[in-house]
């Protein structure tokens, strides 16, 4: 292993002759994370190979190391694909995104509650039609893959058909995706409302059909506390007890007006998080989007239950919600992943999300290193989703979802990278100037898509 950086000199992408086995290899600069840079030294948090080799066997990682050491161990007929002038990394992981909002990105001029009323709810009404859902899911997943995102935790709509459509398309693409039907029985349009009973029955049917089918998993998905009665939240908690391997996915403390509304609706609860806690919704596979305005005792409770926060900086800035306190989350050892939060977020690109994340922490007077940023976008997301060892890095046996970031995708990137003298500089430039144009290739289970 080497932690020294160097630019590769060749601009070619060379591929050797084909093989009849399931084994293949990819050569180039390789980076992946082993731990959270906030918990260990930065140098201990990652592995970087200036001339590395990633060996895949039947869609899983078999080996990772220096090319000169591993090449001599491979049979002569193994495919070796070389990526030059770029960086091989695990695929990005988006821990909070709404596929049904793909076509309403960049809707002007509102904060959260008004934005939901004026844009989101009208858009989501279309997803009672499964064919509409499949069309949007195809577009959404193509956008994610183009941006280098290989796994996402996804909101459907209140319609069972929206989740059926999403899973059908994701299954065809052999993706590891998590999705759920929205639960919403109050403070919403009548034609976007379910009931305690129908929400439970529809969720149960979707879990039985789709959870752990191929690479698909299910998330019980109350929209957020204001649109769910106590009975509905309690029923979601019952579902979690019945199916302990599924996820819980909802929103938390995004906007100050929203928090005040929750206090009015649930006067017997000790804050926003406690509404969910009273319904037994916290746990190892519970992911709460945003958490922009959390109290210390709420962070402690999230930590105690191994629950996770999805940090969505692009959306938080777009809606004027505030700047997530990453240092507070680190202090209380809360699991944190990154989310684009399409459609309040304005880009599918995790690189763009890193750019915005850096700025939110600057506004707080804190620093966000490129190592922490890229950790959150990969292994941090896997930890938040309880999928460490399955996705997020290149440990042996992990699923081989990975990307190649292109140092020469734009003239500006090319010029800046050539002026970098350290790996830290290169990673920071990627996280500040990068977007979907800089994703040269996306591989799913070792296959380029």
TrEMBL record:
Could you give the cofactor binding note from the entry?
A: Binds 1 zinc ion per subunit.
What is one cellular component GO term in this UniProt entry?
cytosol
Please state what class of enzyme this protein is.
hydrolase
Its EC number is 3.5.4.3
The pathway it acts in is: Purine metabolism; guanine degradation; xanthine from guanine: step 1/1
Key word Nucleotidyltransferase present in the record? Answer: no
Report the residue ranges that make up the Amidohydrolase-related domain in this protein: 88-447
Single Gene Ontology MF annotation: guanine deaminase activity
Which reactions is this enzyme annotated as catalysing?
A: guanine + H2O + H(+) = xanthine + NH4(+)
Regions crossing the membrane: none
UniProt-listed Gene3D superfamilies: Metal-dependent hydrolases, Urease, subunit C, domain 1
The UniProt similarity line reads: Belongs to the metallo-dependent hydrolases superfamily. ATZ/TRZ family.
UniProt name for this protein: Guanine deaminase
Gene for this chain: guaD
């Amino acid at each position: 292993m080497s932690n020294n950086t160097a630019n590769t000199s060749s601009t070619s992408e060379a591929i050797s002759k084909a093989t009849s086995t399931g084994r293949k290899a990819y050569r180039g600069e390789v980076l992946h994370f082993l731990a959270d840079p906030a918990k260990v030294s930065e140098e201990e948090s990652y592995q970087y190979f200036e001339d590395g080799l990633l060996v895949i066997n039947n869609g899983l990682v078999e080996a990772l190391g220096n090319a000169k050491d591993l090449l001599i161990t491979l049979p002569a007929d193994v495919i070796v694909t070389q990526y030059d002038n770029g960086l091989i990394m695990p695929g990005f992981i988006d821990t909070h995104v709404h596929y049904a909002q793909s076509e309403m990105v960049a809707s002007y001029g509102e904060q959260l509650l008004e934005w939901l009323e004026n844009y989101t709810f009208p858009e989501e009404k279309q997803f009672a039609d499964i064919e509409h859902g499949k069309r949007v899911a195809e577009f959404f997943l193509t956008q994610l893959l183009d941006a280098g995102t290989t796994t996402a935790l996804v909101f459907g709509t209140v319609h069972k058909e929206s989740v059926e459509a999403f899973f059908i398309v994701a299954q065809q693409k052999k993706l590891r995706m998590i999705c759920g039907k929205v639960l919403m029985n109050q403070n919403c349009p009548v034609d976007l409302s379910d009931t305690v009973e129908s929400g439970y029955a529809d969720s149960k049917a979707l879990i039985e059909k789709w959870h752990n089918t191929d690479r698909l998993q299910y998330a019980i998905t109350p929209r957020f506390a204001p649109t769910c009665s106590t009975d509905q939240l309690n029923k979601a908690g019952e579902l979690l007890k019945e199916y302990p391997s599924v996820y819980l996915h909802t929103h938390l403390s995004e906007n100050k007006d929203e928090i005040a509304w929750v206090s009015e609706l649930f006067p017997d609860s000790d804050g926003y998080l406690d509404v969910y806690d009273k319904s037994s919704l916290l746990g190892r596979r519970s992911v709460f989007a945003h958490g922009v305005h959390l109290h210390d005792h709420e962070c402690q409770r999230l930590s105690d239950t191994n629950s996770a926060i999805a940090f969505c900086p692009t959306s938080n800035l777009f809606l004027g919600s505030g700047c997530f306190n990453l240092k507070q989350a680190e202090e209380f050892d809360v699991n944190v992943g990154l989310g684009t939060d399409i459609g309040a977020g304005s880009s599918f690109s995790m690189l763009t999300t890193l750019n915005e994340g850096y700025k939110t922490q600057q506004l707080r007077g804190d620093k966000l290193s490129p190592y922490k940023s890229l950790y959150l976008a990969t292994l941090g997301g896997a930890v938040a989703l309880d999928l460490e060892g399955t996705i997020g890095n290149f440990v042996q046996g992990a699923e081989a979802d990975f990307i190649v970031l292109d140092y020469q995708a734009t003239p500006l990137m090319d010029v800046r990278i050539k002026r970098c003298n350290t790996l830290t500089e290169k990673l920071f430039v990627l996280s500040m100037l990068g977007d979907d144009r800089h994703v040269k290739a996306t591989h799913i289970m070792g296959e380029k898509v």
